[in-house]
Recover the amino acids of this structure.
């Protein structure tokens, strides 16, 4: 372990130390000055972003460190920067809710930061062990977050479900990893890749290992048929936690998939492509169709997540740099969109009652025209209508599917996108065409409104100036 | 002076205006309408500069602007116009002014109303000028958003059904075009429309690409049998929405066929021209009969629009049949020019008819034909305009409605007698439903107290109807400026589609 290696892991080391500082500091902060914890957490993220950006700007060759367990590349740096930025948004949104619902505790911040640390480790993993380490840090923190409101039966039930199913998925992933390790004799992804392309390993062993690992990935993504936890957890968890779960862990999932499937097992591309095709097709169809039937907006957005996961998987299919860039672009964009959508729900929640039902959105355009406009842009973006950024994400993954020769799958994709447009339009309809049930204007603290404005306008700005983000993603895979 | 990036200005000024109107809306609502009008007039004025500087002897793209947009995929912000797009842009900017004037009395959220219309027109201008396929697609789809809101917020009682149907129909059609464009990009490495025109590829993929384009644009035209969204959307939309929909939005389908389907996949178009011609003739004849049976004025005009747009698609696809049957190209260009003239003329006439219905609806709040009778007695000036437009709709010589139809029917004779026979039937059907409507609404005894208390046109309505009447008559009497403008581009297109691209 040299100084140079430690410098590569500086963001991780910084986030770890600061999380401990937040944890300790929070003990000494009195109830009414809890805002300090929040500020400290946001500052942590801002500095981490600077550290990662410095690494990102540095000349971009891939460096392996810590006996090949850790990799520093542009893909990782870019993804981490977006993790911090999105998490800052999540914290600002969450504060408003947590205050209103009496949940404004330090645990939320420490757990989220630990989950972030897990995501970062996962993103930079170059060994099956680091992958697993990062993933478990992320998921264990998430289980606890879901149960944050310990008085809520729904929340505890969701956490329990999540824990049981999640542990099983982790077990499967671990089992798959052990089989691959057995077949190739190494843990480092680069070595596994080299061994596989040299034809090392018994076919049966590899096939089993691959299947279990793909299952693990599918669970973490929430792809059909391993999606059942998503609606229940999204529904049961408090809104800020749902917001969190739909953003940063998605970036972790795409990193997990790219690290394992591409960096590790690209030699088995022919095998995993077929599995992902099935997962993608089922996710897009089931997610979009079932979302129509939901009246609870959290569940609707949960099924919408499942559908979007299907689209993200499309990008992985051709195993080309452009395809991975498309998947990465889509995931980043999706995380931003869904954060905004849940933020509007937080905005509408008044003390004691979460805004859960679609009817709660009625007439928002009259109660708060500006934020209704933000939600409108987010919804059209989720539906994939240009000029909003969601469209630029969609066409890239569809092009990826086409370049893999899967025209039929791209047709399924666009048809399900049209089906999906229906329930996003319904939200717009409720906000703009219906009269409000409760004419009171909706308000929120200034930082909340500012972040939501940035979030909504980003739908348009990232769409019109999508070239920059696309180049950033493409350059991550050259 | 003409170094200005006119096309960008035409696209972005109304959008900037829309943002300003929204920003102004809450604080000083009185300024909303004048500001919107100024923006619309400035845009219209700039589009006249476009006309003045346009070289009508060339088929080249003019006023070209090009900048890198998405570097990684070689996508450009690439604008330019030729003889096919210029008339449509002029029509669009003119209609924009009329719609803003027509929406003067909107009281529910006027700032959002004006902003939605300005944005819609800006997007349509951008779409007509786009020379990059992805840029085109972005404009093509983005315009659904303002239209969705226009019908949904300011529409009639059944507006939500209508607007969702409108949105989903169009969206469904266009996603196949997206797949076709992406496939073409992967095959040719470019999104530039000019490159796609030159790109050679086999007949089977051409057929798939052509069908994808056809679905997208047939929904927009709309062609039978994917026309069902149009009557609903027209009936529920506010007057301004109906006007834009009929006058400009339907033309996008025809324009798309000319810009994409025909030149990119000419061999497939030659193979499948029977399909388009067949659907067009069904639209002309069958939808003509359907129009005859309507009791709602807006619905009648909507069906009449579908029938008239059948002429447009017919005229565009006659070229192949003419070349096959006669071995030469006389008449091929005539059909295509006829289709273009028909689009422009229909823009004036249908827009005017919807405005006329709006005039009555504002006073009586009914669109039913049976709610009226003898309107000419109480509103003589209005009746004069209305009769003119309905006559023009039925193809009266001397009005613009006649020119396009006549050109297309002439071209149809070159292709086949029976095509011409079926197409000419519309002259009778069109006259039947138009004149019957005129008879029931405007002539006869004053039917009820509502009609008896009608007041004739005010200055604002006078202005709008006069402008459209001038264009309808002007184009009918002297269509050459328009035809000359398009001629080189049309000839160029006809020459292009006659060459096989299967390589």
């Amino acid at each position: 372990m040299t100084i140079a290696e430690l410098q590569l892991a500086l963001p991780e080391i910084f986030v770890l130390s600061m999380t401990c500082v937040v944890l300790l500091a929070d003990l000494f902060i009195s109830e009414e000055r809890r805002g300090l914890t929040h500020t400290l957490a946001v500052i942590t993220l801002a500095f981490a972003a600077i550290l990662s950006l410095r690494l990102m700007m540095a000349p971009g060759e891939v460096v392996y460190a810590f006996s090949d367990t850790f990799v520093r590349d542009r893909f990782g740096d870019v993804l981490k920067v977006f993790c911090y930025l999105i998490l800052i948004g999540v914290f600002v949104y969450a504060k408003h809710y947590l205050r209103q619902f009496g949940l404004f505790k330090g645990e939320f911040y420490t757990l989220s930061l630990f989950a972030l640390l897990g995501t970062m480790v996962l993103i930079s993993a170059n060994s099956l062990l680091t992958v697993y380490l990062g993933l478990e840090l992320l998921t264990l923190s998430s289980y606890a977050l879901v149960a944050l409101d310990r008085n809520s039966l729904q929340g505890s039930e969701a956490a329990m479900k999540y824990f049981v199913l999640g542990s099983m998925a982790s077990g499967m992933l671990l089992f798959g990893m052990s089989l691959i390790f057995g077949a190739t004799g190494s843990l480092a992804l680069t070595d596994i890749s080299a061994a596989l392309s040299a034809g090392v390993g018994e076919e049966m062993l590899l096939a089993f290992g691959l299947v279990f690992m793909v299952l693990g990935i599918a669970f973490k993504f929430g792809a059909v048929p391993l999606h059942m936890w998503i609606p229940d957890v999204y529904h049961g968890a408090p809104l800020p936690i749902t917001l969190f779960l739909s953003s940063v862990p998605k970036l972790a999932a795409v990193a997990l998939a790219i690290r394992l499937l591409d960096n590790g097992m690209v030699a088995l591309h022919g095998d995993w492509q077929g599995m992902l095709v099935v997962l993608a097709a089922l996710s897009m169809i089931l997610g979009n169709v079932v979302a129509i039937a939901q009246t609870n907006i959290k569940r609707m957005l949960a099924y919408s997540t499942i559908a979007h996961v299907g689209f993200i998987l499309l990008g992985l299919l051709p195993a080309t740099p452009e395809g991975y860039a498309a998947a990465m672009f889509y995931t980043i964009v999706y995380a931003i969109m869904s954060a905004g959508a849940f933020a509007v729900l937080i905005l509408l929640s008044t003390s004691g009652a979460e805004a859960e039902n679609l009817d709660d959105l009625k007439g928002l355009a009259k109660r708060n025209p500006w934020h209704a406009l933000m939600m409108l842009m987010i919804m059209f973006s989720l539906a994939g209508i240009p000029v909003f950024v969601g469209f630029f994400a969609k066409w890239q993954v569809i092009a990826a599917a086409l370049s893999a020769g899967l025209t039929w799958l791209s047709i399924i994709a666009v048809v399900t996108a049209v089906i999906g447009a229906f329930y996003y339009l319904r939200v717009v309809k409720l906000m703009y065409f219906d009269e409000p049930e409760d004419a009171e204007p909706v308000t929120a603290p200034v930082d909340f409104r500012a972040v939501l404005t940035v979030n909504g306008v980003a739908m348009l700005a990232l769409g019109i100036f999508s070239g920059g983000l696309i180049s950033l993603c493409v350059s991550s895979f050259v | 002076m003409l170094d200005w990036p006119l096309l960008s200005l035409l696209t972005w000024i109304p959008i900037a205006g829309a943002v300003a109107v929204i920003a102004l809306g809450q604080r000083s609502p009185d300024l909303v309408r004048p500001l919107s009008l100024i923006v619309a007039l400035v845009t219209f004025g700039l589009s006249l500069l476009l006309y003045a500087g346009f070289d009508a002897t060339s088929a080249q793209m003019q006023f070209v602007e090009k900048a890198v947009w998405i570097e990684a995929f070689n996508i450009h912000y690439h604008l330019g116009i030729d003889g096919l797009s210029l008339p449509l842009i002029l029509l669009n900017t003119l209609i924009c002014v009329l719609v803003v004037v027509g929406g003067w009395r909107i009281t529910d959220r006027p700032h959002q109303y004006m902003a939605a219309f300005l944005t819609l027109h800006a997007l349509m201008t951008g779409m007509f000028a786009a020379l990059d396929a992805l840029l085109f697609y972005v404009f093509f789809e983005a315009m659904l958003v303002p239209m969705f809101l226009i019908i949904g917020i300011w529409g009639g009682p059944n507006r939500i059904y209508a607007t969702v149907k409108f949105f989903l129909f169009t969206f469904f059609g266009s996603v196949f075009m997206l797949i076709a464009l992406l496939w073409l990009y992967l095959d040719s490495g470019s999104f530039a429309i000019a490159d796609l025109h030159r790109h050679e590829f086999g007949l089977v993929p051409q057929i798939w690409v052509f069908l994808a384009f056809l679905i997208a644009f047939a929904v927009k035209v709309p062609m039978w049998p994917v026309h069902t969204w149009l009557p609903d959307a027209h009936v529920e939309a506010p007057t301004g929405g109906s006007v834009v929909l009929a006058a400009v939005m339907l033309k996008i389908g025809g324009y798309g066929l000319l810009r994409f389907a025909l030149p990119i996949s000419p061999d497939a178009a030659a193979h499948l021209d029977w399909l388009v011609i067949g659907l067009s003739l069904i639209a002309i004849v069958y939808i003509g009969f359907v129009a005859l049976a309507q009791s709602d004025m807006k619905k009648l005009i909507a069906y009449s629009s579908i029938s008239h747009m059948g002429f447009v698609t017919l005229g565009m696809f006659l070229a192949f049949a003419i070349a096959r049957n006669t071995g030469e190209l006389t008449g091929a260009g005539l059909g295509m020019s006829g289709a273009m003239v028909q689009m422009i003329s229909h823009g004036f006439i249908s827009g005017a008819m919807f405005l006329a219905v709006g005039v009555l609806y504002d006073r009586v709040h009914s669109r039913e034909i049976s709610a009226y009778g003898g309107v000419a007695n109480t509103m003589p000036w209005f009746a004069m305009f209305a009769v003119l437009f309905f006559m023009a709709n039925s193809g009266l010589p001397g009005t613009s409605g006649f020119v396009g139809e006549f050109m297309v029917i002439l071209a149809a004779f070159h292709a086949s007698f029976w095509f011409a026979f079926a197409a000419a039937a519309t002259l009778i059907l069109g006259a039947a439903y138009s004149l019957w409507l005129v008879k029931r609404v405007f002539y006869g005894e004053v039917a009820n107290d509502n009609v008896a208390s009608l007041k004739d046109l005010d200055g604002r309505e006078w202005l709008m109807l006069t402008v459209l009447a001038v264009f309808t008559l002007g184009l009918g009497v002297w269509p050459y400026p328009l035809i000359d403008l398009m001629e080189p581009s049309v000839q160029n297109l006809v020459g292009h589609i006659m060459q096989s691209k299967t390589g």
User: Anything to note?
Assistant: The two ends of chain A are 28 Å apart (CA to CA).
